[in-house]
Design goal:
The complex is a heterodimer of chains A (about 290) and B (about 260).
Chain A (H helix, E strand, L loop, with lengths): L4 H14 L1 H37 L2 E6 L5 H12 L4 E7 L1 H12 L3 H5 L10 E6 L4 H10 L3 E6 H44 L1 H9 L4 H41 L8 H32 L1
Antiparallel strand pairs in A: 1-3, 1-4, 2-3
Helix pairs in contact in A: 1-9, 2-7, 2-9, 2-10, 7-9, 7-10, 9-10
Chain B lengths: L3 E3 L6 E3 L7 E9 L5 E10 L4 E5 L6 H8 L7 E6 L2 E2 L8 H5 L2 E4 L11 H11 L4 H14 L15 H13 L5 E5 L7 H16 L3 E6 L2 H7 L2 E6 L2 E6 L17
Parallel strand pairs in B: 5-10, 5-11, 8-9, 9-10
Antiparallel strand pairs in B: 1-2, 3-4, 3-6, 6-7, 11-12
Chain lengths: ~290, ~260
């Protein structure tokens, strides 16, 4: 079979050249379909990234009541430090909280400036915890006097994890959907080629060609079409993701998003493999129809 | 006599070409699913190196016989033994290997229109997965034999009928098959060109290839003085060592030489 690889490739190319419009339309359709799948997967990847980031920064935020004095806050800090699972405790005053928010919001901090004379933030303890003990620390901290409320980042993480799972499931279904549409598209284009060369196939058969000889160029054609679609969608993702993610980062400055190029590079193997695999499946489907 | 070789793997037993008494049809019947009886009780033995004409009117069963030999069809009854192997019992995957031992020439040439003369011939070697070096050596030699070296880059549409058939012939013999099956190879050619083709077939036969030719060309059959198997209504009505198209008594004076 490999003896004739050059011949099969040349035949696949010759057939594609004989109907360029159909092949180009198929290629564009496959590229768009895979790009659509890439967007869904990128969403899933991004959320997963957020979960991982938040996991590394597992912390419980303990907000203090407004009337808590510095001395009381110091005692509370010592109590928190003594809890099992706590690795570090840092006190942030109301002023520091306002300052931090100014840094996070960047250009939007002007809106905060409009609130001159009024600091809406409470002073709080940022309690670093071992991730698996975060919930216990939060529960115990809630019971201490002078505590206004406790925010456990685990809850956010759990929500994000759930969202990530939903997105990944969605991406999987999208991939199946995209794969089926791709398979039908490629199967159709390959089937047309097989039909156009029916007489040729008959000659192959009579000359003693094995069952795969005649169909191999078409299998290659379908696979290469899928692969080309995968590569083109990867290229499109590589060009569009940096722009889109920079816009997203600007809109959500408080979220640690990954750069678009990194996301595109993460989803690229998936696009290429999906293209190749479903291209091959489409060719096999067309071939089985032809045999029938 | 009933030798067989193993090709590719032990399960694929196909006939070994190249020993004496290569083809034997024993009580072969062929009835198509629509009830049409194409062949009835055919008994023929063809030895290695023979030149055999199958003659007979349309519908006599010549094409069916060719299809049976190519294993396009299987007999309804009887056996077709190729060196002792019953080809009707070949498995589907074995058939291509069997066919590689038979060169085929068609009346309508059946060349691939988008390929050049060289590619059309080389293609028959690619089909059997011949090494590239072998293709580069063999194709020019065969094109030289059929006198088409100078047209190797031409497309079939740029050739005359005779030249196209010579390409068909080159394609059929490029793999050195032990048997050449020609179905009306001169059917679409003028007499002069037909003789060019016949000269080539004789040369191929002289080099040891068994040639089986189905034809309507009375003058060719009569001049060649080769074995003639006459079919009529699906039966062999005559099998002569150095025969003619018609039975001696059937000849119409003045028409045939």
């Amino acid at each position: 079979m490999f003896t004739n690889l050059g011949y099969f490739l040349a035949e696949a190319w010759r057939d594609a050249r004989s109907r360029p419009v159909a092949v180009i339309f198929s290629l564009v359709s496959i590229t768009l379909l895979l790009l659509f799948a890439a967007f869904v997967f990128a969403g899933g990847e991004e959320v997963q990234w957020l979960v991982a980031q938040l996991g590394e920064e597992a912390a419980v935020t303990v907000f203090l009541k407004e009337d808590v004095t510095a001395a009381q806050a110091e005692v509370l800090g010592e109590k928190l430090q003594g809890l099992d699972g706590v690795t570090a405790v840092r006190f942030i005053s109301q002023e520091e909280a306002l300052e931090e928010m100014n840094i996070v919001l960047g250009s939007y901090s002007a809106e905060l400036a409009a609130l001159t004379g009024f600091n809406p933030f409470l002073s709080y303890f940022e309690v670093r915890v071992r991730p698996e003990q975060g919930l216990d620390v939060a529960r115990q901290a809630e019971k201490f006097s002078g505590v206004d409320g406790v925010r456990d980042s685990r809850q956010t993480m759990e929500r994000l994890t759930r969202l990530s799972t939903v997105l990944r499931l969605g991406a999987l279904f999208t991939l199946i959907f995209v794969g089926i549409v791709m398979m039908i598209t490629i199967s159709h284009i390959v089937h047309l080629g097989l039909m156009a060369r029916e007489e040729e196939m008959e000659i192959y058969r009579l000359l003693g060609a094995g069952p795969w000889f005649a169909v191999m160029p078409f299998l290659l054609q379908g696979s290469l079409l899928g692969l080309a679609g995968g590569l083109m969608s990867f290229l499109s993702a590589l060009l569009s993701f940096p722009f889109l993610f920079s816009r997203l980062q600007a809109a959500l400055p408080f979220l640690p998003l990954r750069p678009g190029v990194a996301v595109a590079l993460t989803v690229s193997p998936l696009l290429v493999v999906t293209g190749l695999l479903f291209g091959l499946c489409g060719s096999l489907l067309a071939q089985s129809h032809s045999r029938g | 006599m009933s030798k067989a070789i193993l090709i590719k793997d032990k399960k694929q037993v196909v006939p070994e070409w190249g020993v004496k008494a290569m083809i034997k049809l024993c009580h072969v019947d062929k009835t198509y699913p629509n009830g049409n009886i194409a062949l009835k009780d055919i008994n023929i033995e063809i030895d290695k190196g023979e030149f055999v004409f199958f003659v007979g009117p349309s519908g006599a069963g010549k094409s069916t016989l060719a299809k049976l030999l190519l294993r396009e069809e299987v007999p309804t009854a009887g056996e077709i033994l190729v060196n002792g192997v019953n080809i009707a019992k070949l498995k589907h995957r074995q058939i291509p290997y069997y066919r590689r031992g038979i060169g085929v020439v068609f009346q309508d040439f059946r060349l691939l229109p988008e390929k050049t003369v060289y590619e059309n011939v080389a293609f028959a070697m690619q089909v059997v997965e011949a090494p590239r070096r072998e293709i580069l050596r063999q194709v020019p030699a065969v094109l030289h034999l059929v006198g088409l070296s100078h047209k190797s880059r031409s497309k079939p549409s740029q050739l005359s009928g005779g030249e196209q058939q010579r390409v068909g012939l080159a394609r059929a013999i490029v793999n050195n098959p032990p048997v050449l099956l020609a179905d009306e190879p001169t059917g679409n050619l003028d007499p002069e060109t037909s003789w060019e083709i016949m000269r080539l077939l004789v040369e191929i036969n002289r080099r040891g290839t068994t040639v089986i030719m189905a034809t309507h060309a009375r003058d060719i059959v009569d001049t060649m003085k080769k074995r003639v198997v006459a079919l009529e209504g699906g039966r062999v009505v005559r099998d002569e060592k150095q025969g003619s198209y018609d039975c001696e008594g059937d000849k119409i004076p003045g028409i045939l030489s």
